């Protein structure tokens, strides 16, 4: 038995979704979502959409997030009624904090079957609270012209809202009555009235630009480049920095380390922890781009910085927990840099020279690192090219911040730096791999985060994704060894270390992955010479205690190197 | 560096938790929750609490839910800030719908680090929306008397609210500033002012009882016993039924199938699907106890039932999506049954005799079942004794409803019948096993639900739980083969069948489980002779198409059996 009104109505929604440029769709199977799933696949046969099917909705949410991060386009999630939808919550929150246009379409039982004891029904109204930009309760299916026009308009408008500045996730809730079988007749050409909003952009007034120029021109400016969506987003920053001879603290997620530029600074955690006096390297002004940087040290330094801090903040969020911003520039980096480029004069030569000397010495030391975990990003930055790299939260992203060196490999680096969770990392990386356009996909992850989203591996198997996962296995939560609770010895292992004794080889077997074990730098280098042809898991065994010691020694050694450079400059003032 | 004000404050919260009788605690590791975790473990050393540590918060939520279902006591969940807390959402919603007093204590960053770009911070205010009974934002730690008294009172009051009718989950959000290390000095005897609320109970007035007696006494009453918390909850129902000679449609979760009583009816899905005319078995009145029954057929029949429906509804929720209730009795089953017992006269003898004849014939046929999946509950009801059995949603609970026969084995049966999700089932079962007080713990689950919460198995390994898991592996979503979408052949397997090709033997190896494969009834019988000594996984291979056919044939055969009994009674009116 099919249901013609249902078919027209659901097809209208699908046409509206297509009209707004949604191409990637992740479906989690269920009964209530039947007409949407069937009609989507029916449409997909006509090349409208790429469909992915993920049984675990938590993983599905992060898989979609990974796709959106990579394509910068909205991705649609679809699930059935009930707790299925609640499993999306972590990914929805991460999407909100990182401004990703995730479109969540939950199907629901009709009013007469919710909140009244019926099964598979939860209250889906405002399910994600204020963690979405918009919640829309769609009407029950009907094929009258008023309903169809309203639904087409409202679905399009909601997807547009997700993509408007500041971008973010949206939630559409669709109640459906039985019978749920649509008519799978040939699909007509979609002909909704499409909605578009031609791009607008904010620009600085001439007066504002002139004031700003005065603040920056010829000054010791330090550019702080935080996480960015793509290389394009901060593209103008490099040119501006060269004009002003301004060093750039390049966050690993700024996408600026895709170029081996001599103004990029990566040793910031060593330089800004208060142990070192910057001397003539001390900036007058900090010009911030992008989201919150990975480095907590830089944020702490900003809190003590007495010069002016200017935040380029097109989202108008003032999301600055260093509380140091004084000037908010609500324009995009591209517009700002283009406007400033002809205006600014360079900083004193010596300022830039010191920074470059510091960075050169830092990189030289980093290239020589032998410590098991710390050398992994060094090897990756040395070996990988034209790759999409996903990095887990906790220790991996910190190690990448410190030790992944800028190079001309054009490697994009992604991480879930909204809530910084260790949940959903595998799925996010696989979502990236599904749409990155390259077989060179990599994930760097610790054993706990790997375990947390192990279910996510199923998508690699089911969709034949090409990705190499480097699992740093120190059997537990490595980051806690750096925190004060490490002193509470009797309680540490059960509460924080939490060794799971995960057998990574057996996990690899379970998901049909090629398994490798890299105990030496040479092992890892040789494995990274191969382009991924499917799912490959490289286990790097490590030891938490040894790693803590190695990191501390490394930090001491790098401090010494930096201090030597600064001392050299301070004793040779004429340099 | 320790923090004495912090220690006093957090210890006050812990004392308040202990004062309200919370014994089971599930911690997920993280940094922000450090003082709570450390002090809890410090207290646990003094036998205050049983602590469980689960890395995956989604699993942790369901593990706690399983414990609460089994102990009928509140269970505490603790996690760090960020998306960790969002992972609890599915379990929180299930707890709400099944009235389980889950106490969620999320730790949080202080105000100056939320909603302002700081990492590991999400907006945790009202995180679970209206899916908890109460949300409490606790103040920042302080050791002044006013704060300590307020926090002690408010934490106790919140835990009491979770346990007051209608019970449900509550959320405490605790912001903490660094430094996070508490003082781990000897624990003092807790001495909060404890809060208690002596139990009250609603009773029927004499007039209401007399009216109700008139409606029931001597009438053809059909008792519908839905899911109940424990055997005690519906204990009075059996005695009342015997007095009135009233058959009881005993839901598998009513806990009534723990007794081989000759008034229990299990063949209701066959009798109520409209294909059979009940004749003299037709009741005048339906008296409902417990939550929504597993059987959708019974609900559909209630919608067409023209007699009176009385709902015993101590939660005062009127959660009746059959919309058939006319009389709501806001008393507990025990009070109602005790009050009615001396009053009611039996129904006509013939009414009860027909029902007993129908059930005897039904059970005889069920005992002879050979179909691969359908025979599993038959074997379980035959073999298991003094066991705690968790049943997954989707096909397993339906099969248990149909084919798990009442017996004197004293087996408790649990299932997540709030939102009926297939998420968190493994963890719920392991939570049950952790506190059931018996090594005889069982889980019956399909391969998709098993996969969905595979991470949950880690708790069996880490806490050496004794449980046997029967995985019915038909490689995909078996239930969809019974739905109309099975006709959409081209789309069915990718969207609904969704075979995951899960290698259950390798999963068993990963978690150190003993693995068995049961291809015959004898295999399964012999495996069920052994008491679980650890984690054991029994895979029962099945085939979805064959299973659909077998269920249809079985249904036809059972209809025939029921019709024959009724025909016999109708042609022998003098019986």
UniProtKB/TrEMBL annotation, chains A, B:
In terms of InterPro entries, this protein maps to: DHS-like_NAD/FAD-binding_dom, MenaQ_synth_MenD, MenD_middle, THDP-binding, Thiamin_PyroP_enz_TPP-bd_dom, TPP_enzyme_TPP-bd
Cofactor requirements of the protein: Mg(2+); Mn(2+); thiamine diphosphate
* EC number from the UniProt entry: 2.2.1.9
Ranges for domain Thiamine pyrophosphate enzyme N-terminal TPP-binding: 8-126
Q: What class of enzyme is it?
A: transferase
Q: Which residue numbers delimit the Menaquinone biosynthesis protein MenD middle domain? A: 211-377
What metabolic or biological pathway is this protein involved in? Answer: Quinol/quinone metabolism; 1,4-dihydroxy-2-naphthoate biosynthesis; 1,4-dihydroxy-2-naphthoate from chorismate: step 2/7; Quinol/quinone metabolism; menaquinone biosynthesis
In terms of CDD domains, this protein maps to: TPP_PYR_MenD, TPP_SHCHC_synthase
Cofactor note text? Binds 1 thiamine pyrophosphate per subunit.
What Pfam family is a match for this entry? TPP_enzyme_M_2
Q: Which GO terms describe its biological process?
A: menaquinone biosynthetic process
Q: Which UniProt keywords apply?
A: Magnesium, Manganese, Menaquinone biosynthesis, Metal-binding, Thiamine pyrophosphate, Transferase
What is an example of a GO molecular function annotated in this UniProt entry?
Answer: manganese ion binding
Q: Which residues form the Thiamine pyrophosphate enzyme TPP-binding domain?
A: 411-530
Name the catalysed reactions.
Answer: isochorismate + 2-oxoglutarate + H(+) = 5-enolpyruvoyl-6-hydroxy-2-succinyl-cyclohex-3-ene-1-carboxylate + CO2
Free-text function comment from the UniProt entry: Catalyzes the thiamine diphosphate-dependent decarboxylation of 2-oxoglutarate and the subsequent addition of the resulting succinic semialdehyde-thiamine pyrophosphate anion to isochorismate to yield 2-succinyl-5-enolpyruvyl-6-hydroxy-3-cyclohexene-1-carboxylate (SEPHCHC).
| Family from the record | Belongs to the TPP enzyme family. MenD subfamily.
The record ties this protein, via HAMAP family, to:
MenD
Q: Which NCBIfam families match?
A: menD
Q: How does it assemble?
A: Homodimer.
Q: What is this protein called?
A: 2-succinyl-5-enolpyruvyl-6-hydroxy-3-cyclohexene-1-carboxylate synthase
